[in-house]
Every structure is written in C-alpha cells, then in structure tokens.
Specification:
- It is built from eleven helices and nine strands.
- The chain has about 260 residues and is an alpha/beta fold.
- The protein folds into two domains: about 1-35 and about 85-125 and about 175-255, Rossmann fold (3-Layer(aba) Sandwich), CATH 3.40.50; about 35-80 and about 125-165, 2-Layer Sandwich (SIR2/SIRT2 'Small Domain'), CATH 3.30.1600.
- It is elongated, with a radius of gyration of 19 Å.
- The relative contact order is 0.20.
- The chain binds nicotinamide-adenine-dinucleotide.
- Nicotinamide-adenine-dinucleotide binds near residues 27, 38, 106 and 239.
Length: about 260
C-alpha cells in the first residue's frame, strides 16, 4: 500500500471533523478466522447451498436442522474469535473523535470486543436468542448447551415458540431502529469508509450510495471489486488489518 493512500484517508478523516462513518462487512473479520460469504474461501463459494439454510423459511420449516447448521457454521467460530488489528484501529479512531460510528453487517460482536462504543448492528448478533412470537430475548449460551444435549431447537420459556438465534436471516426485515439510525448517519456524514463488504446485501448496501448522494466522500477498503468502486474517491485493495492500523498510526503520530 502506498503512503499516499494512508495520508489521503487520514486527512479526509480530519477534514470530516468527526462526521465519518465506518461501514463494515464480513471481510473485516476474515483475519479473525471467520470466513466471509463471497471470497474464494467464502462460505457460499465453497457451499452454495448454505444460502438457503440461512433463510427464515428454512428456520421455520426445520428449526432443529437450522440450529445445527447455525452452531456449526457461526456460533462455534464466533465464540472463539478475537478482534484483529482492523477492529482495534476503528476503535482507536473513534476514541480519537475521528469516527462517529461503526455501522456493521456483521453479527460477530468483534467491534464491541475491540472497544468500539457506537456500533450499529444491522444484521443482529450471534450470541443471543429471540422469540419471533413474543419478542423474548436472552443470552444464547444455555440454549446452545441445551441443543447439544437434545438436538432439538430450544423453546421460548415464555410462550413455547421455537427460539431463533438473534441474527437476521434472509427473508427477515432488518431491525427498524438500527436501520433508521444507520440511514440518518449516512445522510449526515462527510466521509464514509466501506471496509470488507461486497456491497450486494440490501438494504444495508444502500448506505454508501445514500452518503454519496448527500455529498459525502467515499473510500473503499476491499480485496475485490465492488459496484461502487467507480464512485469512490479512492479504492484501497489491501487487507483491512494492514491498512487501517497505518491510518490510525499516522493520525496519532502526526501533528495535523
Ligand atoms: P461478503 O462475503 O459478501 O464480502 C466480503 C468482502 O470482503 C469481499 O468482497 C472480500 O473481497 C472482502 N475481504 C475479505 N477479506 C478482506 C480483508 N482482510 N480486507 C479487506 N477486504 C476483505 O460480505 P458482506 O458484504 O458483509 O455480506 C455478507 C453478509 O453475511 C452480511 O450481511 C453479514 O451479516 C454476513 N456475514 C457476517 C459474518 C461476520 O459476522 N463475521 C461472516 C460471514 C457473513
């Protein structure tokens, strides 16, 4: 990566005076050992059928199999995963007052674990359960233990309906408050930094476009091309964990 790229992004963050938003996707967590979906080593590239098993229809038609798949594919990886240098760099930029929020499509909680405070999770979180009938929510841990003993999807202690991991499955709406807060940020930010997202999952992928329409500067840090590359001021074709710490380092060591 060139030092010019680091400097351009760093200066844009300064010029934004705190009105900068990071929009992250699965790519920021690949180096924490969690595969993304669409890279050559991604979940869907290796197993195209996985997409169907991540749908609400699949959960409702076979909650036991859906839980099995969820635990193997997500829970067992995410419970062990640790933030990488990219997550820590974003937390540092927030602490320095240079990033207002992280809007993430990820469910892995790694931004929180790295110390980011203002995190908007558009697709839920891997470590809780929710009941679609009565809205009961709780930590997932004891339900995972229960599933491991019985192989039956756990039931809601309040209403008896099958409990679902608190992630947004395909075919489910995104949480209203989070979505609305994310669009408010996209409309008012001066810089949007897209990190590790193929920008094909809607409606989340509309956020960078919204920011652009409102005059924000767009920067993309992604290993493969995205449909918004031509609209971005700069595309950084580097690993997030290599590029972002350089930006944070530059900003903390410079007098600008
Ligand atoms: P995606 O798989 O569609 O795209 C990931 C992008 O990140 C790819 O374009 C890839 O080239 C890039 N990438 C991979 N490693 C990178 C790195 N180290 N540095 C920079 N770029 C890198 O992911 P998406 O756009 O987030 O959409 C997938 C959906 O799947 C999201 O809705 C998300 O909720 C979910 N998901 C989440 C996780 C997680 O929580 N960690 C993991 C897999 C999928």
């Amino acid at each position: 990566m060139s030092s010019r790229e680091v400097e351009v992004v760093a200066r844009a963050l300064i010029d934004a005076k705190g009105k900068a938003v990071a929009f992250t996707g699965a790519g920021i967590s690949t180096e924490s050992g969690i595969p993304d979906f669409r890279s050559p080593q991604g979940v869907w590239t290796k197993d195209p059928g996985a997409q169907e098993r991540l749908s609400l229809d699949y959960f409702l038609s076979d909650p036991d199999e859906s839980w099995q798949d969820y635990i193997e594919r997500f829970y067992s990886l995410m419970i062990k995963a640790r933030p990488n240098l990219a997550h820590y760099a974003l937390a540092k930029l927030e602490a320095m007052g240079l990033i207002e929020a992280v809007v993430t499509q990820n469910i892995d909680r790694l931004h929180h674990k790295a110390g980011s405070k203002n995190v908007i999770e558009l697709h839920g979180r891997y470590d809780e359960v929710q009941c679609l009938r009565c809205n009961f929510r709780e930590d997932i841990e004891k339900y995972v233990s229960e599933f491991r003993k019985t192989s039956n999807a756990p039931r809601c202690p309040k209403c008896g309906f099958a409990l679902k991991p608190a992630i947004v499955y395909f075919g489910e709406p995104l949480p209203e408050k989070e979505l609305s807060n994310a669009f408010t940020l996209a409309r008012s930010c001066k810089v949007m930094l897209v990190i590790g997202s193929s920008l094909v999952v809607y409606p989340a992928a509309l956020l960078p476009e919204t920011a652009l329409q409102r005059g924000a500067r767009l920067f993309i840090v992604n290993l493969s091309p995205t449909r918004l590359d031509r609209e971005a001021e700069l595309v950084i074709r580097e690993k997030a964990s290599e590029f972002l710490p350089k930006v944070a380092e530059y900003l903390s060591s410079s007098q600008i």
